[in-house]
Each structure stands twice: as C-alpha cells, then as structure tokens.
Amino acid sequence: MERIYERNEGKPDKPHRHDYFTIIWVKSGIGSHQIDFNSYPIENDLVFFLSPRQVHQIVAKQKPIGCVINFTHEFIARNNIDKRFIHNINLFQSYGTNPPIKLPKSLSNKISDITDEMYQVYTDRFEYREEALAAYLRLLLIYTNFVSPDNIHDDLNQGPALVRDFKNLVEEGFREKHKVKEFAELLHVTPNHLNQVIKEYIGRSAKDYIQDCITLEAKRLLIHSDLSNKEIAYQLGFREPVHFSTFFKNQIGQSPKEFKELNNPDFL
After folding, report:
1. Can you give the pTM of this predicted structure?
2. How far apart are CA 10 and CA 30, in angstroms?
3. Quick one: which of 85, 75, 70 has its CA closest to 130?
4. Reduced to 3 states, what is the DSSP secondary structure of residue 263?
5. Mind listing the pLDDT tens digit for each residue in 6-59?
6. How far is CA 239 from the centre of its chain?
7. 259 neighbors 219 (Cβ within 8 angstroms)
8. What is the predicted pLDDT for the residue at 151?
9. How many alpha carbons fall within 13 Å on the CB side of residue 152?
10. pLDDT (tens digit, 9 = 90+) per residue, 88-104?
11. Can you tell me the distance from the alpha carbon of 74 to that of 12, in angstroms, rounded to the nearest whole number?
12. ∠104-133-111 over CA atoms, to 5°?
C-alpha cells in the first residue's frame, strides 16, 4: 500500500473497478474506502475483500501501511481451488454492503506472517511458486473467515447452503432473470420457502435481493460507463428502456438521468 501511495504522490485514484478479486489489508492507516457508493473508514488491522466489477476508491489522509493481493478466476482454477470455496467463505460480496473485517491482534500477527511469506515467494520466482501462493492465499482466507461476522456456516442446517446458492445464482443471472420464481425453480424449492429462508438469514426478501443487485449494477453502469440508458436497460434484461427507467426511479426515487447529474463529477 505504501508503494501505491508513493507512486500516486498521495493522490487518490479515481473510482475504478477490476476484473479480478482484491484483498486489501490495512496494517495501519487513516482515511476512507468507498466501495459501490458506500464509504468505510480506514483504520488499523482492517481487511477489505473486493469482488470483480466492484467500484472502489481509497482516500488516504496519510501514507498507509499494508498490502494488496490480487488474484483471478483463472488463478483459482489453475491451482485447484474450488470456486465453491470462494463462495462458501462468504468474504467476497459482489452486491450489497462490504464492510471490512477487524482483525484481533493475534490473528493480525498470523496474517502478517502469511503475507510476508507470500511476498517472499512471489519475488523469489522458484519452481511451484504459484502453487505455494495459492496455498498461502487459501490459508489467509480460512483464518480471516473465522472472525467474519457474515460467516453463516452451519453443518446441521440447510438454510445457509440455500442462501449461498441463491446469492450465487442471482449474481450470475440477474441480467436475464428478475423473478423469485425463476431462481426457486433452479434451486428446486418453492418461491415461498425461498423467500422465508432468505428473509431469515439476510433480513430481506428474495425479491428485494434480486432488485438490489439490478439497482447496484445499474448505478455502476450509469456512472462508470459510456452506455446509454437504452443500452443499460437491455444489458440488465429489460425489454423496454421505459421499464428500466420506471424500475430505477421506484428503487431510488430518481430517474437514471437525475442520478447521473446529481452524483459527484469525479465519477463521470
């Protein structure tokens, strides 16, 4: 993190997004981290987890100390890390809020040791380097998952598995499917049962979660792309642009045009 800060001469990057996963561990720092239109304070011993396509920006008030780890879907596949493992640990939230995880001191020391080893392996370039990095990455994620408040693992209850499968299906398919019934059929449950379980575990109905995903992606595209409203509407699965405009205004109380005009010019 200190090298990035120095390279940018202390100036924050513009809000941006990547097509890979990112872990940002702040050993020490002061500032803020904007992720998908939400702002989180930066302080000591925080870990942020970013999924591909999430928009973020770090604004540091002083030089931060920490590390940034990037890895791709291809890296996971090459090193036999099951995609379901990434989903099941529930650290990377493509949609919804992304508060950082605060590490207790004992775990902070472990993460420090792991990242130091990762950096050494990365720079040494020896045989099986990538396999070693994958092993350290998996260990880092497992340790961090222990203290995650979103850890809903429960071997005796099928609810958490259904929640994870639903969220994964929605995040991969909300551009084509907008109805609870469509996802319930894929999960082999009734819409009522799906709604009940989702409401119990995440505090929102299945319909709300689907609509939240559509709305957030619409915001991202409106602010961070050159697509027209019509193009965005079709990309998000609306047959008519007017249906998209009506949906968006019902969700946030502003038309797509008003939302673009009222947001920070730095996002344009």
Report:
1. 0.81
2. 13
3. 75
4. coil
5. 999 889 888 888 899 999 999 999 999 999 989 999 999 999 999 988 999 999
6. 28
7. yes
8. 58
9. 19
10. 787 888 877 788 999 99
11. 29
12. 10
Question: What are the tokens at 250?
Answer: 């019902």
Phi, psi of 19 (to 5 degrees): -100, 25
Cα dihedral 83, 87, 92, 94, rounded to 10, equals: 90
Name the one residue in this structure whose structure tokens are 């409203």.
229
C-beta separation of 110 from 59 below 8 A: no
pLDDT tens digits for 111-160? 999 999 999 999 987 889 999 999 999 999 999 998 887 655 444 345 67
Query: Can you read off the two tokens belonging to residue 135?
Result: 């092993």
Give me the sign of the Cα torsion angle 219, 223, 227, 228: positive
Count other Cβ atoms within 10 Å, centred on residue 179: 12
Please report the sign of the dihedral spanned by the C-alpha atoms of residue 86, residue 88, residue 89, residue 95. Answer: positive
Q: How far apart are CA 246 and CA 243, in angstroms?
A: 5
Q: How many CB atoms lie within 10 A of CB 214?
A: 22
Please state, in angstroms and rounded to a whole number, the distance separating the CA atoms of residues 30 and 36: 20
Contacts of 174-179 with CB under 8 Å at 24 or more apart are 174/210, 174/213, 174/214, 174/217, 174/236, 174/237, 175/217, 175/235, 175/236, 175/237, 176/237, 177/210, 177/237, 178/210, 178/211, 178/214, 178/237, 179/210
Q: What is the rounded end-to-end Cα distance, in angstroms, of the chain?
A: 26
Pairing of strands 38-42, 55-60: unpaired
Q: Look-up: residue for tokens 């020490």?
A: 28
**120 contacts: CB under 8 Å, gap ≥ 6:** none
91 token code pair: 């650290």
